Fold this protein.
Amino acid sequence: MKASKHDWPVLIVSGQFHEASDEGFRLNELVSELEEVQYCSVIPSFTYEDAQEIFMSRADIGAVVIDWDLPDEDPDEFMYAPELIGLIRARNKTIPILLLTDRLDMESIPVDVLKAINGYLWKTADTVEFLSGRIEMHLLKYLKSVYPDFFGALVKYSEEYKYAWHTPGHMGGEGFLRSPAGVALYKFFGENTLRSDFSISVPELGSLLDHEGVVGDAEKNSARAFGADYTYYILNGTSNVNQVIWRSQVLKDDIAFVDRNCHKSLNYSMVITDAFPIYMIPRRNKMGIIGPVRLSEFSPETIKKKIKENKLIPENLKGNTPKMSTLTNSTYDGVCYSVVNIKKELEQSVKNLHFDEAWYAYARFHPIYKNHFGMTDDKLDKNHPPIFCSHSTHKLLTAFSQSSMLHIKNGGTDKIIPYEFNESYMMHGSTSPQYSMIASLDVATKMMQDNGNIILNDIIIEAIQLRKKMILILDELKEENEDDWFFGMWQPEEVIIEGEKMRFEDVEDEILADTQSVWVMSKDNPWHGFEDMEDDYAMLDPIKLTFTTPGIDSEGNMAEEGIPASIVSNYLIDKGIVCEKTDYYSFLLLNSLGTTKGKQGTLLAELFKFKEHYDTNTPLCEVFPELVNAYPKNYEGVGLKDHCNAIHKYFKDYKILDSMQAGFQVIPDQVMKPAEAYHSVVGRKVEYVELDDMMGRIPAVMIVPYPPGIPIMMGGEHLNEKAKPIFDYLKQRQDFENAFPGYQSDIHGVERTDRDGKKYFKTLCIKE
Ligand SMILES: Cc1ncc(COP(=O)(O)O)c(C=O)c1O
């Protein structure tokens, strides 16, 4: 069950495996002893370079044995043992490194190496049995340390093969074996998954709801790793983290200050707490990309003004301090805020700060993100409010789906009292937690503690390499033909390195990965397209890759021809590449822990194939056969290029981006709180209203069009004359879907009725 020592190979680096010498003979005996007597596995490596390759490409090496004196070959190309040892130690602080050497060589070993290794193996003086025993001892000691406490306890408990008489009903998988469908599931998921699926009745594993025992220890360890005073494991996603945070602090009729660019779970947080929301409005650029909320939105004066102008908040409550402020960090387009600046503003005027960092749990582990995450170690004002952070550990770290963390930093004077806070936790937590999810949170933490910096640096460098590759491809295409095209990347074209202006692609990868200022958005380098960028305020996350498609420039001017991004992302989906988010002329891909060079290569290959299809105007029936089969009248005989240009022309003629911009700039008048709107749903005081009849009505539910994926209306807001741009934008979306069947996009809160071959949007509105 537990991975055996055989699963953790010993890497032996020596040039003497094939040497007809006493040393060569003993080395081979050592390998046999390890494999046949100790049941270990061995990976032989003949050069230090080769060993480096192996070590960099796999994390399952259990020990490294390095021959200190490999013969010199070409001294220019040669890597020396100290270099290899340094590299291994930088990537793994605890793996045993053993030097294979002669007593005579001891003097030549520098102090740095002595500090980095775990011991020596005398090549000729000790017996082969003794050497292999030492290696095995180090390997076993190391293996014990790779299991974090909770996961280790879970594995140990599963290994005890107890007869369980408690839930879950399949009891370690046995229950599945009573029927073929169950057997199929058993075989698919495997015995370990099922045997480690316990219920709450396992006292050895502690109590999640009480945060006691090994599970409590794991939460405390995560708090240390993520810079929090308290960390809570939440097993039904960050949607639930947000609700637990709000429910712990916000009461009926409290005022809450919320990013309009928020996840829908925050709308539901408003509903369950029955709060009065006021909103922060994000800016967006001319390409439609959502940017940071202006710093001025957080000033005490702006907040007071928003409360004063809010028609819903009763006069007697207008003097109240908002109980909660929630900001999405990073934004859906990978823009991260300097929270230090924001905290300075907000700590004067709200009681609790909440950063929804669902997509950003890794920020603490790489210096490029310094000061740009909620749990940053900045100097806080002595009266600063408590700070809460939501992390979907499952999104960009390695926890299982729905496994999230809630982090809390106490306020200067306002301390969070755990047993009080736990009331909210208990309200939202199941009494039957999935232990493997807890283990995945425990392991995700340990991975970051052990070598988070290295892991992140690797993926940042890989993202940078892909960013540069995109520039180089376009340059190369343009060298051949000035009018050629390729997909672009939303990123700086020029950067300042040590006072010198350089092209992005000319700067070394490591320097780009090391220099935060390269990624910080500024007025002086307006590649981002956001107006009035404040200094030192927001940065682009290097690992969030926004690819741009031709058809619009950074000023929002639309070209004669263009490629709407949804067509590209539909193409990529067909090829097994799923984009995270698609806008009108951009799509987002995440270079996360699971991204490999192979995936990047496949992506580039598919983008090239798309380009080829576009340039040759390949018939749509070859590129999107299902679309043509479903709507032959619309698409038969059409080529890909014609199709892209037709949709592009539609967007251009109907000024759809301007319309979106106008729609999202309006915060409609609130007629009732989101909670009251929801109460109408429960009380059946709602009815579906078709969009064409919706002017003047009050939707009971939130309406969130994708793209861009932020609410355009909240439940309880009035679709009146002031909100007409919202109506116009939704109408355009409806007309577009009818003009281009098969391009139905997701609009949360909107259903569709089919009539006379056309689609009509409808939304649940408050009954009149
Ligand atoms: C900003 C933000 N917050 C919260 C959530 C909810 O996270 P989860 O899917 O873990 O419930 C999401 C999900 O996409 C999100 O984007």
The two ends are 63 Å apart (CA to CA). The chain is about 40% helix and 15% strand. Residues 435-480 form the longest helix (46 residues).
